[in-house]
Amino acid sequence: MAHDEISSEHVAPEAGSFLADEAEPHTIVSSEVVFAGRVWDIRHDVFEYGDNEIGRDYVDHPGAVAVLVMDDDGKVLLIQQYRHPIAMREWELPAGLLDVEGEDPLDAAKRELAEEVDLEAKNWSKLVSFHTSPGGSNEVLHVYLAQGLSATETFDREEEEADILVRWVPLQETVDGILAGRLQNSILMIAVLAAHARR
């Protein structure tokens, strides 16, 4: 479809040189937890949209953090972990929930790095933040780049974390795996491609 075939009422005006998402809060008529889960809840909201009231169910999520660990040779640290909803062991990044009330996301990222792979980092920088599934969840995930590594105390791990595998992989090899469709974890994909673009 050509540009001029799209109805003009659905074409956003060009406003400056930067494309950006826009906040647009609407009046919430009602909001209730319809399922209280172990980690996150399902919430039902009714909100005003135009002249209508619309109801939506979504995952009410505390948010999460992930860490792209990179050494001096440009290799990134990947972990392989079992994920039950998809019945697969995925290669992914050290990550975890923002489930400690009031904890700063960077502090949470440092905690998760130590807990999952027994590492700490001297240098931290924000890589990217994104909504994981905005049509069905309010989760925001913050990814940090960690460099200047050293070992920390060894943590005891339970359940699916008990048999995590760790591998150092060249950044370009990880990019190749993503583009070939062999690596499909969304957090890994976004973080690695963002790091690759910035290099």
Q: What does this molecule look like?
A:
The protein is α+β, with helices and mostly antiparallel strands and 199 residues long. It has 2 domains: 23-60, no CATH class; 64-198, Nucleoside Triphosphate Pyrophosphohydrolase. 18% of the residues lie in helices and 40% in strands. The chain contains 3 helices and 10 strands. It has helices at 105-117, 171-179, 186-198; strands spanning 28-35, 41-49, 52-60, 64-69, 75-83, 88-92, 95-97, 119-131, 140-151, 165-170. The chain has a 4-stranded mixed sheet, sandwiched between helices. It has a 3-stranded antiparallel sheet with strand order 1-2-3, with no helix packed on it. A 3-stranded antiparallel sheet has the order 6-5-10. A hairpin with a 4-residue loop joins strand 5 (75-83) and strand 6 (88-92). Helix 2 packs across helix 3. The longest helix has 13 residues, at 105-117. The relative contact order is 0.17. The model has no long low-confidence stretch (mean pLDDT 90).
CATH domain class name of the largest domain: Alpha Beta
| Number of DSSP E strands | 10
CATH superfamily (homologous) name of the largest domain: Nucleoside Triphosphate Pyrophosphohydrolase
Enumerate the spans where pLDDT stays under 50 for 5 or more consecutive residues: none
Shape: globular
Given the structure, what is the number of helices? Answer: 3
Average pLDDT: 90
- State which percent range the strand residues make up: 35-45%
Structurally, the number of domains stands at: 2
What is the CA-CA span between the terminal residues?
35 Å
Structural class: alpha+beta
